[in-house]
Design goal:
Blueprint lengths: L13 H9 L26 E5 L2 E8 L23 H17 L8 H16 L5 E5 L4 E4 L3 E2 L6 E2 L4 E7 L18 E7 L9 E2 L4 E6 L2 E7 L1
Antiparallel strand pairs: 1-2, 2-3, 3-4, 4-10, 5-6, 7-8, 7-9, 10-11
Helix pairs in contact: 2-3
Length: 225
């Protein structure tokens, strides 16, 4: 796993330009541009966050605001503790606590239906606090939860919080329209998830409270909470 982060504006970032030109090939990528609502603009508060659990790197990025999360009895941290001062990292640590109990000492992933149940219940608990759109990966599967967000065109906080676009790509090296994503070689399935549609193609809004599980570029399961 490679983790690239910096506490700087994406529009002026040399790191972003480097990744656009020479970023590594990958089958799963999570990117986050922060609009700071809590915590100073520091590396410790920069998403995505990553932690080791059961021999795998788990990664988390959140879009929203969760006031009072530290006082919530439904969302508590245990063995994993935040390094920075954001509500997003606190939420990640709380999720890892639940996953820790599920994974146990085994390095083999638990059954997908058990993992998505834990993620869906966690998402429901987060929604009681505020907007809770997030991406979470356990190294094998990406879980995306759609909730609500502030829409720039209306100024209203509401659904959809995330959009998804799935497609089949056959042209190696050709960027996928305005997204900038290109396929390394041959036929591949691909799913892209973003706060707003990134191209003129058909993007499906995730339903409020929907959790989509993506593996190898394909949505393999969905759950609602």
């Amino acid at each position: 796993m490679a983790l690239y982060r910096e506490p700087a504006a994406a529009g002026d970032s040399a790191l972003v330009r480097f990744l656009e030109a020479q970023g590594p090939d990958t089958t799963l990528a999570i990117s986050h541009v922060r609009r700071a609502t809590r915590g100073e603009i520091t590396l410790a508060n920069t998403q995505p966050f990553a932690r080791l659990l059961a021999g795998r790197m788990h990664v988390f990025a959140h879009n929203g605001d969760l006031p009072g999360i530290e006082r919530s009895r439904a969302v508590e941290v245990d063995r994993f503790r935040p390094v920075g001062a954001t509500d997003s990292e606190y939420a990640f640590c709380a999720l890892l606590g639940r996953m820790d109990a599920l994974w146990g000492l085994s390095q083999a992933p638990p059954a997908l239906n058990r993992r998505i149940e834990v993620v869906a219940q966690f998402a429901a608990d987060l929604r009681e606090l505020g907007p809770a759109n997030f991406l979470y990966s356990d190294g094998e599967t990406l879980f995306a939860h759609g909730h609500r967000r502030l829409h720039a065109d209306t100024g209203i906080v509401g659904p959809p919080g995330l959009f998804i676009h799935s497609c089949e790509c056959e042209d190696p090296g050709e960027p996928k329209h305005a997204t900038g994503v290109s396929v390394a070689a041959g036929f591949q399935k691909m799913s892209m998830i973003a706060s707003v549609p990134l191209s003129e193609e058909s993007w499906r809004p995730l339903s409020e409270g929907e959790v989509a599980a993506v593996r190898a570029g394909e949505v393999v399961r969905s759950a609602f909470s």
